[in-house]
Specification:
308 residues; Rossmann fold; 9 helices; elongated; alpha/beta; Udp-n-acetylmuramoylalanyl-d-glutamate--2,6- Diaminopimelate Ligase, Chain: A, domain 1; 2 domains; eight-stranded mixed sheet
Length: 308
Amino acid sequence: MSICVRAEELARELEMDILEPGKGTICFHSPEISRPGLQLTGFYDHFDPHRVQVIGNAEMYYLYSLKEDSLRERIGRFLETEIPCVVCARGKTPPDIVLACAREKKVAFFRTHLNTDQAGHALNSFIAARLSRQVLTHGVLMDIFGVGVLLRGESGVGKSETALELIRAGQRLVADDVVEVSRIGDKLVGRAPERIRHFMEVRGIGIVDVRYLYGVGAVLPEKEIDLVIDLKNYDDKDQYFRLGPEQERKVDILGIPLPNTVIPVSPGRNLAIVVEVAARNFRLKRMGYDTAAQFDSSFLRGDEQRSK
């Protein structure tokens, strides 16, 4: 697999400066990161040109120690390997000859104030997320008390209104209407498409920007999905659990089974509170406390005492 990202987008997402834009678009084939210490001395055995190259303090001082002809020769050979891009860590700027060669070879150069380890981790996470398997799903993704909750349901069932009430109560929005879901290892991470990030559609009002209405603390760029809640219009023919299902419901997304709760929607019901309780209850279960199981065991103990 491979992905292509505009230089401006990469710089914006990772808060980097563009020293040279290269071709304007960078194609990634691997999330692995390398530091080109040996390559700058001319050793290319076992070199993988598909990796992003991060230049740290040691490599930068070495480049500045080289004479002009030697520097031009070595950096020219290095940039001819068709590497995706080069990131200079700790806010360092390479010699002018290096940037001139990058302009000639059309290889993008960036500068970040992070150290090499931090820069490598940020780049790896960014590329891995975009190289992962992805799917678009209709719904609202919220961070509720640290639980990533994906609200699903038919159009008009009240997902966005429920999300607004939750945001007003201090919870955080990740995505509304369309959620990009990526499988990273055995986890699912959701985010909003770039064009609609921080925006919500509210019937009767139109498009609102949650970031400006409620502040930057009301939004998150992405969140791991822990729980899927389906909102369904109440139907008296359906069977709804009063004490909890005997077996936990699961829903499969990209091969990952996630806990699933169905909440019936009826006039006058405060869905935001119910969703909030569902998230809290999920946290309790994850911590080892199952309310339904505790209730059943207490009920059975009461029966035993009454029979005596």
